[in-house]
From TrEMBL:
Residues 74-95, 136-166 are annotated as: Disordered. Residues 81-95, 150-166 have a biased composition (Low complexity). This is Cupin 2 domain-containing protein. It comes from the Bacteria.
Length: 166
C-alpha cells in the first residue's frame, strides 16, 4: 500500500481565476476533495443539485452559502431550516421571502448537505484563501461488503485466508 503524506494548507496557488479542486482520496462510494477558493462565488442564478450527499468543512477563511428549501419543506410549511443538517449552526438564518436559508461558515464550521438539496456559494473570503475539506458520498446504503465465502474457507481467526504450506 502506498502512503501519501500532504498538508492541506500547503501548495496553495497564488493566482486563482477559478476554484482549485483536488481529489485527495476516493472510491466508487466516496470522494474526498480539498477545494481552495479566493473570492469565488457560484455564477448568478446557478444552484448546485448533486446526486451525492456532501459534508463540507471550512478549514481556513469563510464562505456564505444559500440553501434552497426542499419542495417537501415548502409543502409542509417547515421552511428551509428544517431540511439542513446540522440544525444547530448558530449562523443559520431563515430567509422566508426567498425560500432559502443562508449560512456563513468560518474556520472549523461544518455542514451536511443532503443529495439534491439545491445550494450555492454566495461568496468566499477575498482577503485570504478559503480552504474547504469536502466529502461526497452516496445517499444510499451500498449494501453489505463483498461476500467472502463460507467461514470454513477463510481459515481460523487471524489467518486471513493463508494456506498451510507444510
Amino acid at each position: 500500500m502506498t502512503h501519501f503524506v500532504g498538508n492541506l494548507f500547503s501548495d496553495i496557488p497564488g493566482d486563482l481565476p477559478d476554484e482549485c479542486v483536488q481529489q485527495l482520496a476516493g472510491n466508487p462510494h466516496v470522494r474526498i476533495e480539498r477545494i481552495v477558493s479566493a473570492g469565488h462565488a457560484s455564477p448568478p442564478g446557478f444552484w448546485y443539485d448533486q446526486d451525492e450527499q456532501e459534508w463540507v468543512m471550512v478549514l481556513q477563511g469563510e464562505a456564505k452559502l444559500s440553501i434552497q428549501a426542499s419542495e417537501a419543506a415548502l409543502a409542509d410549511g417547515g421552511g428551509a431550516q428544517s431540511q439542513l443538517q446540522p440544525k444547530s449552526l448558530s449562523q443559520l438564518q431563515s430567509q422566508p421571502q426567498t425560500r432559502h436559508s443562508v449560512v456563513v461558515l468560518k474556520a472549523g464550521d461544518q455542514l451536511l448537505i443532503p443529495a439534491h438539496q439545491k445550494h450555492r456559494v454566495e461568496w468566499t473570503s477575498a482577503s485570504e484563501p478559503t480552504i474547504w475539506l469536502a466529502v461526497f458520498f452516496s445517499p444510499e446504503d451500498p449494501g453489505p461488503p463483498e461476500d467472502l465465502g463460507p467461514p470454513e474457507q477463510l481459515g481460523p481467526p487471524g489467518d486471513l485466508g493463508a494456506t498451510d504450506q507444510t
